[in-house]
Amino acid sequence: MRSSIFLLFITGLLTACSTDLDLNPLGSQSVGTYYKTASDAEAAVLSMYGQLRGMYRDEIVVTPNVIAADDGIPFLTGNADRVAMWRYGLISTNTFVGNIWSNAYTGIQRSNLIISRAPAIPMEEATRKSYVGEAKFLRAMHYFTLVRFFGDVPLVTTETTSLENVNVARASVDEVYKLIESDLKEAETVLPKSYTGNNIGRATSGAAKGLLAKVYLTWAGANASSPYWAQAAAKAKEVIDSGIYDLWANYADVFDLKNRGGKESLFEVMYITDLAGNNFTTGYAPRGAPIVPSTGSGIFRVSKSLFDSYTAADKRKAVTFLTSYVHPTTKATVTLSTDDADPARAVSFWKLADVTSTVSGGGGKSFSVQRFSDILLIYAEALSEANNGPNAEAYAAMNRVRVRAGLQPLSGLNRQQFKEAVLLERRLEFAFEANRRFDLVRTGRLLDAVNAETSYGRSPAIEATNVLFPIPQREMDANSALKQNDGY
């Protein structure tokens, strides 16, 4: 299943360059001689997906949404830049901040190569349109990441072929969103509804529609009268009405290896166990725990505020977290806690752990960028906001997610109560799926949430300007047209 995409990750063909421009993404071939045939174009398309693997495996998008919010706590003996981000001692040289920017723009360059080169390559017209659609979908995805972390960012929409004229000023947030909207509107019209065989995992029209719904939801922000609420609801409804997607009966089934690319998935970053894996098993197991290859790394612990937000009836809690394990040698049960300061006894995120992996960093579970439960909750929230309160359809959408989790349906809420209920549902449903900080920022709740999570001596130095990250210093040094975000 989809191995044709991901086995390429481990070859030199898809090795990423160290520079943001990534002018030569296909190994030793030059851009001047390579893009000549349909096979060349297909390899270049696959290289776009290759860029996603590092962005999620290496915590580039995941870490800020866990520790720069209120869901996770880095161990103080771990990476200093991770701890600094958690405490909001953010500076422009923080490596996590720099990696978001560089990886996103490398992905954008790969997309722009396809958009620029595909029209001149002989191939079937339907294939050409699909390749360009995939490139625009992924370019939109990268810009959506950038605009949510940094605000105004440079818009680069053509292939970069040299180091001349690369000093590009930042475009406004609205300009970035307009490009994202345009790219996704085109992508949804040219991408197929589904794939089969080894092509499962590539962007579809449903993925483009779903991402656009989330874009509108985010674009609406905290503006109660925004027209984007109605647009988010309408686009989410298109996905729901397509009949292509559905919830798995059990929450655990979402993350089962055999269900990758299944009915709940709109788009996911896929890995192959022990061949092109992720680090969500060894990396997030309790530190030193002998239950994973090389023993657990214990990158960060689960916050008590997140852990305690799940009720006893919520079936997602047991799936999401590792709360105990049996030591393979002593056979003793090791109980984990959110209160114990010992990294070896900390509750861990576990729903993405691949216990079949035999090597460190070899996990094969997909990282979900968007799944059907996200669409249902987007629809519920946007519909309620657009209509000044929830109607029967909004309740039905949210309650589908709640009932699957073993919770009782909700009813009788006003607009604000419904909004709070949806946001809590999103926190519980998507824990560790790179949504939390984005949800807090778009709803204007980041400062309150961070200031409320002060366990383990956090004392966050967060200010209103910290809703945006600093522009990385290496980019400021390289691009004289850039101006730094306020507060940095």
TrEMBL record:
The keyword Ribonucleoprotein does not apply. One of its GO terms (cellular component) is cell outer membrane. Keywords: Cell outer membrane, Membrane, Signal. It is found in: Cell outer membrane. CDD domains: SusD (cd08977). Residues 49-217 form the SusD-like N-terminal domain. The keyword Membrane applies. InterPro entries: SusD-like_N, SusD_RagB_dom, TPR-like_helical_dom_sf. Residues 353-488 form the RagB/SusD domain. Belongs to the SusD family. This is RagB/SusD family nutrient uptake outer membrane protein. It comes from Larkinella humicola.
